[in-house]
Specification:
PorT family protein; Beta-barrel_OMP_2; mainly beta; OMP/PagP_B-barrel; ten-stranded antiparallel beta sheet; Porin; 1 helix
Length: 216
């Protein structure tokens, strides 16, 4: 594959107008938090989640493809609140809020490929996406006073990334890394405007890194 004169694998595969694949991968979700007044930062503890999904790739021209990559993304983010946020000394459970995510993610991306060199072809990705969080608690009437942290069900994002197509004899293996950036505030505030959990938060917006391994 990496020799001076490699055998060219699947030479005409990406000349197809439309082809499909699937991906597996990992994610790390975070939040960008903006505050109403200067205060101690809320610590966001990130965890590594799991991704799985499908790929549909439409060839627009030789170096540009339109990709749709619907997938299921599992994740968890933990909020650790400073003691100073509370009027009285809080319990450890009150200082911790777990935000689980079972996300259906729908990105529409443009893929800009370079010239193919032997059996490898680097590319850049960019586009927009919408995410449906099935574990958002958005319809709950309870809030943080009942230990329920609520975020909006739908979020919109833009995405940027890069990857490489590696052509084997029977399939294309395509590892990629992508950044995801939420566009709007996702927080549903507590009923009490002075809530220690949401009262000083101006906005929270998703920040995430996806590492996907795609097979065509």
């Amino acid at each position: 594959m990496f020799s001076k004169d490699p055998i060219i694998n699947l030479e005409n595969f990406q000349k197809q107008k439309l082809y499909f694949g699937f991906f597996l991968g990992f994610n790390s979700y975070d939040y960008k938090i903006d505050y109403k007044t200067v205060s101690q930062d809320i610590l966001i503890q990130k965890t590594t989640g799991f991704n799985v999904g499908l790929v549909a790739d439409l060839r627009l021209q030789e170096y540009i493809n339109l990709r749709f990559e619907p997938g299921l993304y599992y994740t968890q983010r933990n909020f650790h609140y400073p003691t100073s946020y509370f009027p009285t000394t809080p319990t450890e459970s009150n200082k911790l809020r777990e935000v689980n995510g079972t996300n259906l993610h729908f990105p529409l991306l443009l893929k800009f490929s370079s010239l193919r060199t032997g059996n490898i072809r680097p590319y850049l990705l960019g586009g927009v996406s919408a995410t449906l969080n099935l574990a958002s608690n958005s319809k709950s009437l309870d809030d943080n006073y009942e230990n329920i942290f609520r975020v909006k069900r739908w979020t919109n994002n833009y995405e940027l990334g890069l990857g490489i197509d590696v052509f084997s004899e029977y399939f294309i293996f395509s590892p990629s890394i992508r950044g995801v950036f939420g566009l709007k505030d996702e927080l549903i505030r507590d009923n009490n405007p002075d809530s220690p959990w949401t009262g000083n938060i101006e906005s929270i917006k998703t920040r995430a890194i996806f590492i996907n391994f795609t097979f065509h």
